[in-house]
């Protein structure tokens, strides 16, 4: 799986990595139980501080996407708990995206098509 | 001994300067990913951009060719001059003049960066990392590089024991000459291993969305480096042993010259084969390159020295030539850079001091009795 890091983005690097790993798990690029690189290896590969990668992994663990232990490192969870609800933060993000699309003259059907594509 | 010095200096300087010119100043720069350490951009090849690009490349190539020709001509002239303190200093300065070829390269780099600004080419600042191949792609088999160096170590131990009379035999050459020669080549061996390991651990390049292509590309590049360092180690160890045997049985300058020339030829051949292999790998994977690589041109001072405070890596892939270089903004990189500069200044100052005080003459390194 390829991770894209944009140095000039407003989104912090730890969040960029987190978002892409979540997208990777959702799309199936990262399979259940798949081993993730160690904190040190990933930090060296991207050329960032180990603390940044550590923060990403802690966040992913808290959110229930991955599990970590001293022996096996980080792995994608075999079974991710499905709450069946969209978080308030994501609702806000979605609202912003829909608003911007509406202001840009993008039709509802185009947005729905995109959702179908990404889902 | 004096003619030996001249031949060795000539054989070291001339092929090196030609190789530097060939690596830094490509015949078809428009077809390369990098031109003078600046990433190629489609805007360089449109209308006025193309005109300016051609002018910059042509001027830098011309400068590089002139400096290369001067170094080659001076080396040929020096071959016919007697060796004295002055010419010895001139030889040493000629070694440093080699790096003069980098001056037009640096000029080309600065001008292309200015052209980028002029054409409105902005930094993308995007880095790609392949999670699948992180820290898993290696090509160096440690045993293959350790084995020749163990042989070199054994050869050195034998030389020291012989020189200190443990075996009760006396070599043909003067006392401690065997030890000095062996230790200096063992020192080279000790440097090769960490560099080879560092090269094998360099970041994997991401050129495609297909992880297997990325892994194969990185593995192929690392394999050519590993092969090069293993060959260096074997050449180094075999030369050390062969030279020790020669120096034990004979004090002949010709024998030493022939073995030294053989060693230099092998090293040059290894470098040339390494460069050809690297080029083949690049050519093979050119059609698979689909991702725009990170634009970090501004972190490359003159296209040669890497300085990036935001990068935690110590070693990165070189832009001039093949192999890796250090990140001068890294704490360890700063220390290494200072040591290199001090060593360079120190060695030039020491040779000048020896020549001025006449100690080179008394050491038998000049024609002056």
Would you write up a description of this structure?
With 119 residues, chain A is mainly α. Helices cover 53% and strands 11% of the residues of chain A. Chain A folds into two domains: 13-76, Orthogonal Bundle (Arc Repressor Mutant, subunit A), CATH 1.10.10; 88-118, no CATH class. Chain A is built from five helices and three strands, in the order E-H-H-H-E-E-H-H. The two termini of chain A are 18 Å apart. The mean pLDDT of chain A is 90. Chain B is mainly alpha-helical and 369 residues long. Chain B folds into two domains: 2-126, no CATH class; 142-291, no CATH class. Chain B has ten helices and seven strands. The longest helix of chain B is centred in the middle third of the chain and has 39 residues, at 211-249. In chain B, 29% of the residues are buried. Classes of the chains: A mainly alpha (119), B mainly alpha (369). The A-B interface holds A 1-8, 21, 24, 30, 36-38, 41-49 and B 123, 125-132, 134-135, 203-204, 206, 209, 211, 214, 291, 308, 310-313. Strand 1 of chain A pairs antiparallel with strand 3 of chain B.
Percent helix among the residues of chain B? 55-70%
Strand content of chain B: 5-15%
CATH fold-type name of the largest domain in chain A? Arc Repressor Mutant, subunit A
SS class of chain B:
mainly alpha
Question: Overall mean pLDDT score of chain B?
Answer: 85
What class, by secondary structure content of chain A?
mainly alpha
State the low-pLDDT regions of chain B, or none. Answer: none
Highest-level CATH class of the largest domain in chain A: Mainly Alpha
Can you tell me the overall shape of chain B? globular
Mean pLDDT of chain A: 90
Domain module tally of chain A: 2
CATH architecture of the largest domain in chain A: Orthogonal Bundle
Distance between the termini of chain B: 12 Å
Which geometry of chain A do the CA atoms define? Answer: globular
Q: Tell me which oligomeric state these chains represent.
A: heterodimer
> How large, in whole angstroms, is the Cα Rg of chain B?
23 Å
Biggest beta sheet attributes of chain B: 2 strands, antiparallel
């Amino acid at each position: 799986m390829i991770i894209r890091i944009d140095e000039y983005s407003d989104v912090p690097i730890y969040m960029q990595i987190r978002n892409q790993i979540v997208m990777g798990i959702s799309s199936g690029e990262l399979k259940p139980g798949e081993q993730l690189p160690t904190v040190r290896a990933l930090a060296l590969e991207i050329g960032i501080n180990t603390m940044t990668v550590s923060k990403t992994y802690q966040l992913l663990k808290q959110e229930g996407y991955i599990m970590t232990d001293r022996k096996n490192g980080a792995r994608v969870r075999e079974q991710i708990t499905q709450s069946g609800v969209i978080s308030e933060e994501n609702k806000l993000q979605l609202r912003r995206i829909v608003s911007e699309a509406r202001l840009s003259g993008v039709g509802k059907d185009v947005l729905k098509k995109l959702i179908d594509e990404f889902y | 001994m004096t003619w030996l010095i001249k031949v060795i200096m000539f054989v070291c300087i001339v092929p090196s300067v030609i190789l530097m010119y060939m690596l830094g100043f490509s015949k078809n720069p428009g077809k390369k990913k990098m031109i003078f350490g600046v990433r190629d951009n489609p805007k360089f090849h449109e209308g006025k951009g193309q005109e300016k690009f051609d002018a910059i490349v042509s001027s830098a190539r011309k400068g590089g060719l002139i400096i290369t020709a001067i170094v080659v001509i001076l080396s040929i002239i020096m071959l016919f001059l007697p060796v004295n303190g002055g010419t010895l200093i001139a030889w040493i300065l000629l070694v440093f003049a080699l790096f003069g070829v980098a001056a037009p390269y640096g000029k080309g780099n600065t001008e292309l960066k200015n052209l980028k600004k002029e054409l409105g080419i902005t930094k993308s600042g995007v880095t790609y990392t392949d999670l699948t191949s992180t820290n898993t792609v290696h090509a160096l088999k440690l045993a293959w590089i350790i084995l020749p160096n163990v042989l070199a170590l054994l050869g050195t131990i034998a030389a020291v024991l012989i020189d200190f009379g443990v075996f009760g035999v006396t070599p043909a050459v003067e006392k401690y000459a065997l030890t000095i020669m062996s230790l200096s080549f063992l020192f080279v061996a000790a440097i090769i291993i960490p560099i080879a390991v560092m090269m094998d651990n360099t970041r994997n390049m991401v050129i495609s969305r297909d992880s297997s292509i990325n892994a194969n590309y990185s593995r192929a590049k690392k394999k050519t480096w590993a092969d090069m360092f293993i060959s260096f180690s074997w050449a180094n160890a075999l030369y050390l042993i062969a030279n020790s045997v020669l120096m034990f049985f004979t004090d002949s300058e010709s024998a030493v010259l022939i073995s030294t020339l053989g060693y230099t030829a092998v090293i040059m051949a290894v470098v040339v084969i390494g460069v050809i292999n690297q080029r083949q790998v690049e050519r093979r994977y050119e059609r698979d390159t689909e991702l725009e690589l990170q634009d970090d041109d501004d972190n490359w001072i003159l296209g040669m020295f890497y300085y990036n405070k935001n990068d935690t890596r110590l070693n990165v892939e070189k832009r001039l030539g093949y192999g890796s270089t250090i990140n001068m903004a890294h704490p360890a990189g700063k220390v290494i850079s200072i040591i290199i500069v001090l060593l360079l200044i120190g060695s030039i100052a020491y040779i000048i001091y020896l020549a001025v005080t006449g100690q080179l003459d008394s050491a038998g390194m000049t024609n002056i009795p």
